[in-house]
Design goal:
Helix content: 40-55%
Number of helices: 9
Oligomer: single chain
Strand content: 15-25%
Strand order of the largest sheet: 1-3-2
Largest sheet: 3 strands, antiparallel
Length: about 200
């Protein structure tokens, strides 16, 4: 028989040690008990309504899981997808080092609290085939990140050409993806110069 602790650990394990207050409640930890677990040292309060198991090993991806969970809607479902410069960094493409985390949320996304300064929020309704699931968060596929950055004009074409080349070499971007998006005006322009 699974205990409340087992249930919560199973959720936290899928999310690199993180969980929401709603998830804790669903596992049998009523709201008044949350403060006790923080003071007792078993949980860390990371953001409003987001906790982390103190003993869970830390990783370089902790920040992605935290802000992915921050993007949840009223039903508790995270809506954000890491995109733009952050997506290229996650995929290890180009030498772009973003100062903020770029997160794309649906156009109708609303939060009552202010967006944290570390987050650069973009709004777009992304198709499922542009997304990848990671352990505890989502990120756009590399080609989508390149197209978004080309449209925004916030990165040099040299950087984006480098990311495209590395993506092709490492199999993160396929030729069929390129063919599928080749008619996209900004990508077509980059491809013409790359393969000219």
């Amino acid at each position: 028989m699974h205990t409340n602790k087992d249930k919560l650990f199973a959720i936290a394990e899928r999310q690199q040690g993180f969980f929401t207050s709603a998830q804790a409640i669903a596992c049998g930890y009523p709201t008044p008990n949350h403060v006790y677990h923080v003071h007792a040292g078993g949980w860390q309060r990371m953001e409003r309504g987001i906790y982390r198991l103190t003993r869970f090993p830390r990783t370089m991806e902790d920040q992605y899981v935290l802000w992915f969970l921050w993007s949840r809607d009223r039903s508790g479902e995270p809506q954000g997808v890491f995109s733009h410069q952050t997506a290229l960094s996650i995929h290890g493409l180009s030498d772009i080092m973003p100062a903020r985390l770029h997160l794309t949320v649906p156009i109708r996304f609303r939060r009552r609290v202010a967006t944290p300064k570390i987050i650069c929020l973009h709004k777009a309704d992304l198709p499922n085939d542009a997304l990848e699931n990671r352990q505890g968060y989502r990120v756009v596929r590399p080609l989508r990140a390149i197209i978004d950055l080309l449209q925004d004009g916030t990165e040099s074409e040299d950087h984006l050409r480098q990311a495209l080349q590395q993506g092709l070499e490492r199999g993160l971007i396929t030729r069929s993806e390129l063919r599928q998006h080749a008619k996209h005006a900004v990508l077509h322009s980059l491809l013409k110069r790359k393969f000219a």
